[in-house]
Predict the 3D structure of the following.
Amino acid sequence: MNELILYSRLQMLTSEHLQTELLLFIDELLQKQFSTKPAVKRIPRFGCAKGTFQMSNDFDAPLDDFKEYM
């Protein structure tokens, strides 16, 4: 993006509160860009997928394709 566009949009913000909010947002973006911390790895909780899928009743039944090997 062109710096001139950014500057002209900044000048359109007449409220000092909005300018301060924009400055804080830019600081957050810069912190993200130059951050060297690794991303936080989420640890899954036991049972967190409960109810999201169902297994058929015959899941453990022998498959017809393997009858000759049994």
